[in-house]
Amino acid sequence: MSPPGRPKGEYRSAQHEGSPVSAHLRVVCPHCDTTNRVLRERLDAGANCGSCKQVLLHGRPLELTAANFDRHVAGNDLPLVVDFWAPWCGPCRMMAPAYEQAAAQLAREARIAKLDTESEPGLAARFGIRSIPTLIVFRDGREVARQSGAMDLPGLLRWIRASG
C-alpha cells in the first residue's frame, strides 16, 4: 500500500510505513528489476522481492544490460559496483573468481554487477571505457570511483569498501 503522493510499489509493506526513512533501503531485485524498500535489519535475514518473491541479495554478481542498467544505477541505496568486461579478455577472466568471492562477501554492503562490453558497446562508450576490466562504483545514480585493471580479492575488497 503506497501512501498518497508516492508511486505505486514504493512501499512493499504497510506495517513499515511509519518507520524512519533511514531504516529502509531501496534494493533493486536482480531477477525482475523491481525496486523494493527493505528494512536495513532484514538484509541479513534474507529479504525477498515483493514482486517475484526471490532473494534480493543472492551473493553473486548481477548481469546488467542496456535494458536494466539505469534502473540498477539509480534504484539502489547500496553502492553499485560494475565490472565492465568482455569474454575474450584474459585479465577479466583471471579476475572473475575474485569478483564472485567479493560479491558473496559484500552482499549486504554493496551491489556487485557485471556488464559485458561486447554485448553492450553503447554503455561502454557512454562511460568512456577504454580498457577492461574497468570497475566503476555508482552511488545515488552517479559515478563516485573508477579503477582499471585486474585486482585480487584483498585488493577488490579494500577498493570497494574505500570507494563505496
Q: Explain this structure to me?
A:
The strands form two sheets. The protein has a five-stranded mixed beta sheet with strand order 3-5-4-6-7, with helices on both faces. Strands 1-2 form a two-stranded antiparallel sheet. It folds into two domains: 1-58, SH3 type barrels, CATH 2.30.30.380; 59-164, Glutaredoxin. The model is unreliable at 1-21 (pLDDT under 50). It has 164 residues and is α/β, with parallel strands linked by helices. It is built from four helices and seven strands, in the order βββαβαβαββα. α2 links the parallel β4 (80-85) and β5 (111-116).
Features:
164 residues, alpha/beta, SH3 type barrels, Glutaredoxin, two-stranded antiparallel sheet, 4 helices, 7 strands
